[in-house]
Each structure stands twice: as C-alpha cells, then as structure tokens.
Specification:
With about 1550 residues, this protein is an alpha/beta fold. The chain is built from 42 helices and 59 strands.
C-alpha cells in the first residue's frame, strides 16, 4: 500500500470569474482538475491552458485545449473534469469560454520548483531553506570565496544569495551594473582572468560538497549610467528623442542643476540661501528661488500650449475658403479638440480644425461673421492655454514640495545622511537625467534638446515613486512623475526602455536575454531586484528564457506594492516562488509572533485533509528574514541582545528563513550596498575574538544561529507543519511546531530585547509556562552575554562585528541540566492530558530555550493505535501508527465487512434521523449549549458541520470546544447505536472501541482524530449504501449519489411502524421484536414526507407525498422490495375507492384527497415497468383494512381478514371512480380539521360521462396537492381553500389517462383480468370498458384544456377569461371558472405521465411559456406572476387583514415549489426529443444548467436535501421543510431520464 496518495486539487470554474489576482500554489506531482460550477453546467465549455502538452516546450502564448473526462460516461456529466498533471515548475495561465465567448473567465496557477542539493541530489523542501545574503563585491578574489562562504556553511545555512556578480558601475552600488554580461574583474587576482565558468564550478562545488544552493539577483530595470553599451545604444533608455514627453522635465532638471551650481557658488546668499542648508528659513529661501527665478525662466507651461495667432489665422483662411467640417470625424458633435504635439515643442499643440469648424460656426459668410467666429475661437484658446498654465503651476507646487522634502531628509533629518553643503558633487537634489557633455550655462544647454545627436544621450535615471501604481511605468507618456519631481532617484542608474516587445528595442532584449541565460546556467534561482518596478511583460519573457535552461528555477522577490492583491499579480504572472518578508517590519514581539503565524503552517491539532479537495487561494510562500541586506541594522533600531531571540522567532516559522551576512556577527551598522568596500571575514575555528578578519562559532550569535538553522531544517524535513504562537507576555513569544503524524512538538520560548536591558527595566518575574506532553530534551538554550574581548571598533579592511558579545549555548541536554529552567513539575489536566509546568530562572532578555516534547507515552501509544486502525480508510495514517497489542475483537474485523450486513433502513439510523425522529426513541439530536443542535442524530448531522470546519481548520468552533471539554459528543455517537441489535449495534461497538482510545489522548488532538474516525466510518457507510442500490446509482455522478442519499434520509422505521401490516403470505417482509411487548412485528420502511416537519408520528406518511416520491427514491435507486411493501401497505387502506392523504398508520387515515390514489396507481405502473418481473406485484395479496367503506379498521389478528390480489384492489379503485365517489368524512368537524367549513368535509370524485375526465371537490375543500386551507379570522379566509381546484384538475386527468391506458395494455397482454367496470347508472347495471374510457379522455383533452391562439375557438366556453394563449388550463369545470385559466405548472405532470394527450408543437410552446413565467432558480412558481393574486413570499406566521396572504394563504399562489420542476424538465426532454436532435441537445444543456443549482444546494445544505419550496426567485423560505422527499425524487428522475 503506497503511503504517497496522489494529491488532487479541484478548481471549480464559474462564469465571468476572473482570478488573475488570486494565487493558487501547487506542488510538482499534483493533479489539477477543472470542474464546472453551477453557472457553466449545461454549456459547451472549453478550457485552455499554456501548460505544455506532453513532449512540448512551454510557450507563454501557446494554449492547448484540455479534453473533458466524463467518469460516468453518461449524459449526466455534472462530474466531468479536465485535468493537468503538474510536473513542471512555473506560472501557467488558464482561461475558459463557452459558445461564442472565447474567454469568460480565467486565472493563473503557480507550480513550485523542486530544489536539490548534495552529491545524492536530495530534495530540499522550500520550508527547509535557510538563506544568507552576501554582497558579492565584499568577497574579494574568487580564490578567497570558499573561506568567506564557509561562514554560511558552518553557521548552518543551506542557501547563499549573492548580489550581482557583474561588473559594477561608477557608483559601486551592488545593483548598478556597468556590463550585465561580464564577470566583475575584481574577482580575478593579478595574473588571472576568471570567467563565469569558474563561478559555475564553485557553485556546483558548494551544491555537491556543502549541500548549499546558490541564487543571485537579476536587475532588469536599469543599468549603470556609465555602461559602455548604453552610450552605443541610447535607444535602450528614455531619452528626449524616443520619449519627447520628458522634454519639459529635462528642462526643469537642467534648471535645478544650475540652481545647485549657483548655491554652491554662493550666488543666492543675498536671497538668504547659503550652500549649507540649516533651518526653516533656508528651506523657505529654496522655495523663493524656485518660484522667483527657476520656474519663470523655464516657462514649462509653453510645452503644452497652443500658438494662438497662427492657429486663428489658419481657421480664418478655412472659413474664408468656405471649408466644412469632416462629418466622419466630428459625427456632428461640437467641442474643440486639442492635438498634443508628438514632439512636445513649445506652443507645439495644434487645434483639430474639423472640431473648430463644427463648433465655431459663423452665422453667414460675411467678413464680420467670420471675424466674430475667429474672435470666439481666440477666446476659447486663451482659456485652454490658461488651463495648461494653471495645471503646470500645480506640477511646480508639487515639484517644490518634493525638492524641499528631499533637502530635509538628506541635510537636516536625524535619520538621514546629513550631506552638508550643496556642491556639484552633492547637489541640492539628484539629477533626473544624464548629461554627458561639457557644463555650460542654462541658456546654452536648452538648444541641445533640439539636436538629436545630443538629445538622444539625455537619459532618464531610474528610481522609485512613493505610493505609485506598480503596474504603471512612471517613465511612459501620461505620467508626470519626472516633471513633478516625485521620483526618488538613483542617479547612478539609467531606466531601461524595453517597449512592448523585442522588436521595439532589439539590442536591449537580446542583451538582457544573454544576461538571463548566463545567470540561469549557473544559479539555481534568482532574486528579482526591484520587482515591483520591472515591467511585467519583460520579467515574464526573461523568466521564460531562464526556465528553458533551468526548469526548476527558484524565483524570489521583494515587493513593495502596498497590497496583497497587487503582490499576487506579480506572483501569479511571474511564478514567484517566495516573497521576501522581514521581521524588522514588526514594531514589537507580539507583531513578530503574528508574522510567524501568518507566513505558514496549519494550527496545532489541524484536521486531516482529504487528498482530493478544492483548490483554495493561498498567500505567497514567504522567505522570512530577520533582516534584509538593504535595510537598517536591527542593533541600531532595537538592541544587540535582541539579535538571538528575534532570529529564533524567525527560525520557528514554517517557511523559508534566513538573514544577511553581518547580522550573526553582530555588525552594528548597515552594510551599505553602495558604499561598503571592505571584505567579509573568513572562517577560522581557532580565531581570536579580537581578530577582525576571521570569525568562528564564538563570534556574535553564530553558534546560536547554527543551532537554530539545524532545528529549522529538521522541523521542515520531518513534517512539523503545524504552528502555534503564544504571546506569553509583552516580551516573551513561545512558538510551537508540531508534527501531525508523530505528534512530537518543538516549543521555542524567546524573550525578546527590543530595548537594551542595561537601560530598560524588564519584568523580573517571568510567567510560568504549561507545556502539554512529556519534555524529552532541551534542544537548545542560549542567551547573548557580554564578554571581555574589547569594544567594537570599525575595521578599515574587514566588515567586523561587536566582539563584546557572544552566545552562551547548551544543546541537547536534559531538563534537569538546564540553566534557564528552575523547576519543571508534572501536572494532570484531566485523565488523558499530562502537562509540564515550567518555571524559569534565567530567561533573561535576549534568551532562547527550545524543548522537544512528545506526548505522554501512554497517549503516544494510543494515538499510534488509532492511526493503525485508521489505515483501513487511508494509507496516510501509516506514519506514526502502532499495532494494537490488545485489539478488542470488534476491531479485528474491518468496518466495511461489518457494514456490509447493514440494511438501508439501518443506514437511515446510522446516517440521518432528525430531532423529532430521535425523540420517538426517547432521545434527540445532539445539542451544544450556547450554540445549536445538529440537524441529524446520525453521522450526517456531524459531518455536515465538520465539512465547514475541516477545510478552514476552525479549531475555535463550538463543536471543537465541546469535544475538547468532555466526552459527551463522543459517547452520544456510539451509545446511540450500541443499544441496537444486529449489525447496527456492531457498528456502535466498533465506534465505542475506537472512542475508548480517543478519550485518553490529549484533548487538543481529539477534534482531529474524532473527525478522522467519523470520516472513515461515514465514507465506508456511503460506499456500502451505494453498493446496495441500483447500477444507475452505483455508476452515477456525485449528483446522482447525493440525491440517492435522499432515499436513505427519508426511508426509515421508527419506534412505531408507520405502515399498516402486510399479508402474512407475503415473502421477504422484515420483522423485529417490539421493545415493549417482546412480540414479533413488521418493520417496513416508510417514507417521510419532509424534514423536519413531516418525519414522525402520524404526520410522517402521506399518500400523495409518498407516491410522488416513490419512483425516484425507491424504484430508480433499486429499492424494489421496500417499494413493493409501501405500495401494498397503502393498497390495504383503500376506502371509498381512495387511498389516504394522511396515512395515520391507516387507523387515523383521512380520505380527503382526490389525487393520491392516482399517484399510487402511477407508481404501481412504474413498478411493473422498472422492476424486473415487476408485473408480479399485481398478484401480491393485499390485506384490506377496510373491507367495506363503513368498516372499522381491521388490524392484524382480526379474524377473517379480507385478502385480495392487488389487481382487484386496482380494479375497485377504478370502478368506484366510474360509479362516482360521494361521501362525508368520518368525524367531520374540528376534531379532524379545526379550520375547514362544514361543506368541505363532503368528498366527491367522479368520472364525467362525456369527457372521461375525473372531476370532483367543491369550493370549500382542496383535494389536490395545492391544499392550503385558510386559517385567519382576521383576514376572513378561515375555512376557505386558497386553491380548491375543483372540477377536473389537469394532473389528475393525466394520471387517470395513464392508468387507464396501462390497464388496457395489460388486459390485452393477459396480465390484468378486467376489461370493464360494472356500475349502476340510471337504475341499471351497465358496463364501461377501460378502452372506452381511455378513448374519451384522449378525444376530449386538448379540446377542453388547450387555450388556443384562435380567439374564435368554438371549444372555448369562457373567452372573456382568457389572459394567456398557447397554454394548457390548470383545470376544467371549476366552480370559479377563472381558476381554470390560471397558469400553473401542473400540466407538466400530465405531459410526463400521458404525453399522448398533447400535440407536440402545442406542448412545446406551452412549456416555453411556463419556462418564461414560472421557472425559478430551484423550483416552479405555483402561479403566474401576472395573476392578480400572485404573491411569491410564503409567511405562515403573518396574520394580518390581507385575505390573499394571511397565515400563509398564498402557499400555492406563487412560492416556488421544487417537485414540479422535475416534471417540467422531464416534459421538456420528452417533447424536445420529438422535435429533433438539435432541439433535444439544447434542452439537455438547459436541464443541466437548471439542475446545477440543485447540485450546489445539495452540496451546501447541512440537511443534504432539497427544500420543499423557496420564496420568489429562489430566496430562502424559513417555513419550508429543509429537505422534502418529492423534491429530491423528481430531480433524481430527471437525471434518470437523461
């Protein structure tokens, strides 16, 4: 059995869902499945991805269509999916569309790389990485690198990050590269010329011999200002030729430079502005110079203005010549358009003369009129020029603010560099453009911008813009960053101008491609420098190039976008593996701990997740550093003593961790990437503390970092992926890493020292800690201590640290040998949880202690045993499992074997039963105080809740709290079953035995293992359930299986049998011993009408509901025996030719509905059709509870019970209708119905002589499924049916036609003994044949029910009541004729059971009207919204004076009932097939689309059912049953029909 279960993630596609900013991370080897969400079901969806097809290379712009897999191979393809086997790292795009929509949604997936190291090429997990950054220029000659890099190895790091190794620019910044292709010549000692080959060899040596992976930076955004190639190819930068929109900014830049020169030369002294800026007055003087001398001189607004004189003159000439505007351009719309001069010259903007001619129209051709038009234009142009002037003033205001702000930081601020006087070397602000020519006056400079040979070399510098949109290039047209001086400029670097594609700047793209190839050839990964400012399309292109050479490229970046949403744009498009995060961003230890929790890991005690599960968005993988190489030194911001504890907190994070060289050596200043020129010290185990050029384990915190790095790598490699962060007090953070398979933990307690303990008063008392389990060892305890090795003095040659500090450390010691822990006592927290109380003695600020903790040995054994028994459900429980030395006999048998003996009736008890069902047995559903009760007593009640808790690991949920606090829920689950006999009791015993172990493990683990046990039991129960059902269910989709579960949910046996007894002659009737009498009794399954309201007692079983639901829930699912028993049990209750509406065990039955008998007959027909040899049911004996209409109920044991074959009972029902049923209900009055008026107790059901239609009822009763009786005195509707539907209800006519037709066919085949019915008519006995009855209905149906488009239709008796044509009436012959013409969904039922009654074309159009008017998201409106009494919101509690709605009077007057939708869709499918293949295929897609809503509801419903009804437009109705038998059944029937 493989331990590595294939990991599958499912991405559900929803129409119009654009997920480009959502991060989906997956590992190599995962399978990704795309499945259709509800908005796409039933549509021709195509999914495309640029993940390469097998054997192909990745090309970002090449997409392949994925093939759909339909595991069921049926028309119901709700489970279909397309799949990707992810074997290649990178970023991949997908999109999908349907029909003519090429792209109606899409997003990205990121597949993480697999990193390898060592001679054995072993896998280095991303969370194992411990990285150290080196400024390459500080490594010296390549020959010296091993000695300097050995510091990383000996400090426990396994990855080195080199800043760029290329030739540096004139500034010496590590990130300003003069030549991206050449190795820095400083790495070669005299007489040697090292190349990339030697660098590559060293990188390989480090990888194989030191197990160290190397990465380096790539800088795509800029090049050094002195790069030789940029001089030869100035088109690669933003210059005044290719970017003339920067001309005005360049003019301002030159003016500010000359202002610098004047300041340096003391020319502004008279204005109160010296070279040395020292106070607010000087800052104000800078503003004065800008506004009085600089801005007026350069007149920047002129670059955006129109030359008025020449423009008006041109306009005058056109008017004089009689010119007309080009209507194609203006479209007749007025409004002056200004055309920006593409060369951005002064007064270079033009007027679109067509817009001028359209706008400024002279009233005649006279010179005076033309003059007036020209003056009008002149005035408008003056306004436009003034607007441009005002806008430039705003830009200049911002420019002045930015210049002054820059001066404040660089020259006055305490945290700034304090540059001193303004000089040409240190100008007032950094120049924005290169100027590679001899310095002259401003007046001599300005003409050069019109000389292309010179202007092409004025290149814009790069930098960054505070708060700017990172997706916008600030150097492109449309940005005002340069003119407003908002760029924080890097004066040593030129911003590169790539354009949109390689053809836009061939040299630059080719140059950078070579640079990328060199890097990818030699390094395992890259850090994208300044990633947020790098054009996305450039980074995409270059990383694609890199991944061709190195498919598992590790990509790191630091993003400053200001939002996770924007971060994800870069991460997803570029396939960034890790984002750099920094502990220095935390202002206190609490925030530092929060970052640990944020950046990775599950909570301790997390649930076991299935291997196939939804793909959920994630945050970017973190590279969590104690400090980055380009940020301020923590010692300066915090204290030296904090170096170790903060580093320990970072090391405990479940992600990549690391640092920069110098941090561990406690260098007390930032090692500048620009100015630092000293070398790093080398490794020497024997070095003295005072030696600045050498380091060893006694230097700084290196010994502590070695221990922390080893621990970090061990935790990741051994699966300690659960994290808990405890803020013990304001300075102490405890981080727990926990392994979910072995349940070992490592707890690191870190006392931070953000303030120097020598000057800050820390608490003397340290709170005790309570650590659950047994402390096996102290992995390490360490603290920073002072030592006598001299004080820090900055070395001129080497980057040295503070010799006065070192780390005192002990590793792998017993608790008793600890110098930090004073006392460790064992306390017990309940019978199953042992806790060690730790009292600290020397946990001083700057200290760290890490404990290795195991479960108590007994608990460890029990967890292992639980995992051992769970292996039968999944191999993932094998790690950490232990064989059970004393296995209880019940656990020796696999659960599947025990469950195979369960009946589906047992499954009802195991999985379901709502509160009222449970109460019949004296119990109830489990209730959590202050929360709520579960929906079911069975496993589904728990599993529905756990399905929400588990994926989110919501361990704070009340269910988890309840499990941790006591065993009540655990006992409830097993005790509920143990009391039963047979296999159900065996399952209870199995659970009890497992729970015996569970109760004795630590409480924090109980939710996880309780869930694991229940999931195993539940999935086994489902497998067993489906195996006992029909092949349609077994081979069906998930949707089919969920619906089929409704059969188990609704089909059960309570404490009191709901069905009357069957004949003793009948085989295979289930029996049980009555708990009270000890006697044998029948225990046939009955169907609940709905949960929770109609599930128990006399209100459980209803004739109509049972037989509307029976076909789907019993016949389609293969539960033929139970279906037979239900049919025969109801047959035994026949009275007056009717079967009961409310069954009441037959004894309390009410025979007040006209339709139930016809649904019963339809089910017998379906049974005979669907069940192999089902026709035999007609010969089955039926025990008549009411031998005569006036009989008292004959119960089992009554002498001389009348028994008849079912076929005779059927014949009796038909004959009684033909004769005419007319009786008054027994016990008529408030005893049986407190609302009905007296006339309503009169029941009539007859067959019309002329039409053959069954008719009956009166306006005071409601004998069909639309049976709402008014209840409100206030609204005066009490005792009045809302929908009497007297006369011939359309569905009863259809059902009777179906029954009669079937009996005719049976008789012809010799399978039904009766051909006609004997009745008394007009005092004579006459025979009426079934054949004749069948023919009458057929001949009269459309004539009487179809509402023709012909307004003079002779068959139409009430043309004045017609308000919709092309529909079928809801009834015929109603006492209120207008009711006949109401549009309701009932005709669809007749279409399904008796389609021969309908003309195909008419039926199809009528269904179209029903679809348009009645179809809702889940159900069918029960009344046309155009009807004056329509109301779609059912509120049974509302009692007002509104006749139409009070006390839910509108129950069937608009609310959307679910069960009719099944018949509507089945009718659509039937008639669509008659209309041809194309129509049928379109209808199938419509059906799938509609049913997708039901699928979603089923999946999300905690009841795992479909409701009785919804309010209008699918809104939730609180008065509806949450799960209704017929709703589930009819939807399942649709899928069966497909």
């Amino acid at each position: 059995m493989s331990l590595q279960t294939k990991q599958v993630r499912v991405l559900v596609l929803n129409d119009m869902e654009q997920l480009g900013r959502t991060l989906f991370r997956l590992d190599q080897g995962f399978e990704l499945q795309f499945r259709l969400g509800p908005t796409l079901q039933g549509k021709h969806v195509h999914v495309h991805t640029n993940y390469p097809a097998p054997g192909k290379h990745f090309d970002r712009h090449t997409f392949q269509a994925l093939a759909w897999h339909n595991p069921m191979g049926r028309e119901d393809d709700s489970d279909k999916f397309c799949t990707l086997d992810l074997q290649i790292a990178g970023s991949y795009q997908y999109y999908f569309g349907h029909g003519h929509e090429e792209k109606s949604g899409g997003g990205y997936i990121v597949v993480d790389p697999v990193l390898r190291a060592g001679a054995d090429n072993h896998h280095v997990h991303l969370d194992c990485i411990t990285i150290q950054t080196y400024l390459s220029k500080c490594l010296g000659h390549l020959d010296d690198w091993p000695a300097r890099l050995r510091v990383a190895k000996e400090s426990g790091y396994n990855m080195i990050h080199f800043t760029p190794l290329q030739t540096l620019g004139i500034s010496r910044s590590c990130y300003s590269l003069a030549d991206q292709l050449s190795l820095n010549p400083e790495f070669s000692p005299p007489g040697k010329n090292y190349t990339w080959t030697e660098v590559g060899e060293l990188v390989q040596k480090l990888k194989k011999e030191w197990n160290m992976i190397c990465i380096t930076d790539v800088v795509y955004n800029h090049t050094a200002a002195n790069s030789p190639w940029i001089k030869e190819h100035p088109e690669c930068g933003y210059n005044l030729v290719n970017s003339p929109h920067l001309r005005s900014a360049w003019v301002l830049d030159r003016a500010i430079w000359h202002m610098t020169c004047n300041m340096a030369d003391a020319k502004y002294a008279a204005m109160g502005l010296p070279a040395q800026v020292q106070n607010e007055g000087h800052l104000n003087a800078i503003r004065s110079v800008l506004w009085e001398q600089v801005f007026p001189k350069v007149k920047l607004w002129e670059f955006f203005q129109v030359k008025i004189e020449s423009t008006v003159e041109e306009f005058r000439t056109l008017l004089t010549e009689g010119a007309k505007p080009d209507q194609k351009k203006t479209e007749g719309k007025q409004g002056l358009k200004i055309i920006q001069d593409p060369k951005f010259r002064r007064f270079g903007n033009k007027v679109d003369m067509d817009s001028a001619l359209e706008t400024f129209v002279p009233h005649s051709r006279s010179p005076q009129a033309i003059l007036e038009a020209c003056n009008w234009l002149w005035g408008r142009l003056e306004e436009i020029n003034k607007e441009q002037y005002q806008q430039m003033l705003q830009h200049q205001e911002q420019a002045a603010n930015c210049i002054v702000g820059n001066v404040v930081y660089e020259r006055l601020a305490d945290h700034g560099p304090k540059l001193g006087p303004v000089t040409r070397k240190d100008p007032i602000v950094t120049r924005y453009f290169t100027f590679p020519f001899e310095e002259k006056s401003l007046e001599e400079d300005l003409p050069m911008m019109d000389q292309p040979d010179k202007a092409s070399h004025f290149l814009a510098h790069n930098g960054w813009v505070m708060g700017d949109d990172p997706l916008r290039n600030f150097a492109e047209p449309g940005s005002n960053v340069y003119i407003r001086r908002e760029l924080i400029c890097w004066g040593d670097s030129v911003k590169l101008r790539y354009g949109n594609k390689p053809e836009d700047c061939p040299y630059l793209w080719a140059h950078m491609q070579k640079y990328t190839e060199i890097t990818a050839k030699h390094f395992a990964g890259v850090r994208l420098d300044n990633c947020h400012s790098t054009p996305l399309h450039v980074a995409e292109y270059m990383l694609d190039v890199a991944r061709v050479l190195r498919p598992s490229l590790y990509v790191v970046a630091e993003l400053f976008t200001g939002s996770e949403d924007l971060d994800n744009v870069f991460v997803t498009k570029l396939g960034i593996t890790s984002l750099i995060r920094e502990a220095m961003s935390a202002g206190d230890s609490h925030e530092e701990g929060r970052l640990v929790y944020r950046y990775g890991g599950e909570p301790v005690g997390a649930f076991v997740q299935p291997s196939l599960r939804p793909l959920v968005p994630s945050i970017a993988h973190a590279m969590f550093l104690d400090v980055t190489h380009d940020n301020e030194c923590p010692i300066q911001l915090r204290s030296a003593y904090d170096s170790l504890p903060s580093s320990a907190i970072v090391s405990m994070a479940c992600c990549c961790s690391g640092s920069t060289r110098g941090y561990d050596e406690m260098v007390p200043h930032q090692i500048s990437v620009v100015k630092e020129e000293r070398f790093y010290p080398k490794w020497n185990p024997e070095a003295k503390a005072s030696s600045p050029g050498e380091v060893n384990l006694k230097t700084g915190i290196i010994a502590g970092k070695l221990a922390l790095n080893k621990m970090h790598q061990e935790l990741a490699s051994k699966g300690f992926n659960q994290v808990y962060v405890d803020q013990v007090d304001e300075d102490i953070v405890a981080v727990t890493r926990h392994c979910p398979s072995t349940h070992q933990s490592v707890v690191a307690v870190c006392r931070t020292a953000f303030h120097n303990p020598k000057h800050h008063q820390y608490r003397k008392e340290v709170p005790p800690m309570f650590i659950p389990g047994k402390i096996e060892e102290v992995i390490l305890e360490a603290r920073i201590i002072d030592r006598q090795a001299g004080t820090y003095k900055k070395c001129e040659k080497y980057i040295n640290g503070m010799p006065e500090y070192t780390v005192e450390i002990k590793e792998h010691i017993q608790l008793k040998d600890s110098g930090v822990v004073k006392h460790a006592g064992v306390t017990s927290k309940g019978s199953s949880e042992f806790v060690q109380e730790i009292i600290f003695e020397r946990l001083t600020p700057g200290s760290v202690i890490a404990f290795r903790v195991s479960l108590d040995p007994k608990a460890q054994e029990l967890v292992g045993v639980i995992r051992h028994h769970l292996i039968q459900f999944s191999p993932k429980y094998k790690p950490g499992s232990l064989p059970d030395q004393h296995t209880p006999p019940i656990l020796e048998t696999p659960l599947a074997q025990i469950m195979s003996k369960l009946t589906l009736g047992d499954m009802n008890m195991l999985l379901f039963r709502c509160d009222s069902e449970e109460q019949e047995d004296g119990g109830g559903c489990y209730n959590i105080p202050s929360w709520t009760s579960f929906k079911y007593g069975g496993l589904q009640g728990l599993l529905s809740v756990m399905a929400d808790i588990r994926p989110k690991n919501d361990l704070g949920h009340p269910v988890c709290d309840n499990l941790r606090q006591g065993d009540w829920m655990i006992d409830y689950v097993s005790n509920r079953l143990v009391c039963h006999s047979g296999a159900l009791g065996e399952v209870g015993k199995w659970l009890k035995a497992m729970f015996h172990y569970l109760k004795h493990i630590p409480r924090y683990l109980i939710p996880c293992y309780f869930d694991a046990i229940l999931v195993g039991v539940y999935t086994t129960a489902l497998d067993t359930t489906f195996n006992k059902m029909s092949s349609f269910v077994q081979n069906g989709s998930t949707f089919v299986k969920l619906l089929a579960l409704g059969s188990v949910q609704m089909g059960g046996v309570g404490s009191f049998p709901a069905l009357p007894p069957l004949s003793l002659e009948l085989p295979d009737v289930p029996y049980r011993l009555n708990k009270d009498t000890g006697k044998k009794e029948q225990c046939c399954i009955s169907l609940a009408a709905g949960l929770p309201h109609f599930s128990s007692g006399i209100f459980r079983c209803w004739g109509r509901d049972t037989f509307i639901a029976l076909r789907g829930l019993m016949l389609v699912t293969g539960r033929h025996l139970e279906a037979r028993n239900i049919i025969l049990a109801f047959a035994g209750t026949l009275r007056h030719g009717l079967i009961p509406n409310l069954l009441g065990e037959g004894i309390c039955a009410r025979f007040n509905c006209r339709d139930a008998v016809w649904w019963w007959l339809q089910c017998i027909q379906d049974y005979c059709t669907l069940v192999p040899e089902g026709i035999a049911i007609l010969r089955c004996p039926v025990v008549r509870m009411y031998p005569r209409d006036d009989s008292e109920p004959q119960v089992s044991g009554t002498p001389s019970l009348l028994t008849q074959p079912l076929c005779d009972v059927i014949h009796e029902a038909m004959q009684r209708h033909m004769q005419g049923i007319d009786f008054r209900e027994r016990n008529a009055g408030p005893k049986i119905d407190m609302h009905m008026k007296d006339e309503g107790f009169n029941v009539v059901a007859k067959v019309h002589r002329d039409t053959g239609f069954v008719y009956g009822g009166n306006r005071f009763n409601c004998g069909t499924w639309m049976d709402k009786m008014g209840e409100s005195d206030k609204a005066r509707n009490k005792g009045m049916p809302a929908t009497p539907r007297d006369g011939s209800a359309v569905e009863i006519v259809g059902l009777s036609k179906s029954a009669v037709r079937w009996l005719v066919e049976l008789h012809k085949k010799g399978l039904f003994p009766h051909s006609s019915m004997k009745i008394h008519r007009d005092g004579k006995e006459v025979k009426v044949s079934y054949e004749e009855w069948n023919h009458k209905i057929l001949a009269n149906f459309e004539r009487n029910f179809y509402v023709s488009h012909d307004e003079k239709d002779p068959n139409e008796k009430h043309p004045d009541l017609v308000h919709k044509r092309g529909i079928y009436k809801d009834s015929h012959g109603a006492s209120s004729p207008w009711c006949d013409y109401q549009l309701r969904p009932n005709f669809c039922i007749a279409m399904v059971v008796a389609p021969e009654l309908f003309t195909v074309e008419r039926a199809w159009k009528a269904l179209g009207i029903a679809e348009k008017k009645l179809l809702g998201p889940l159900g069918m409106k029960t009344l046309d919204p155009d009807d004056m009494v329509y109301c779609g919101v059912y509120d049974n509690a509302l009692d007002n004076d509104n006749y139409n709605v009070a006390r839910g009077f509108n129950y069937h007057q608009g609310p959307e009932w679910l069960w009719p939708i099944g018949y509507f869709l089945r009718a659509k499918l039937y008639f669509a097939k008659k209309l041809g293949k194309e129509t049928y295929e379109q209808t199938v897609y419509l059906v799938k689309s509609i049913l997708s809503q039901h699928y979603v509801h089923l999946e999300r419903s905690s009841w795992k059912g479909l409701p009785e009804l919804t309010n209008e437009n699918g809104q939730y109705c609180p008065f509806s049953c949450e799960s209704q038998a017929w709703s589930i059944s009819t939807v399942l029937e649709v899928l069966h029909d497909i």
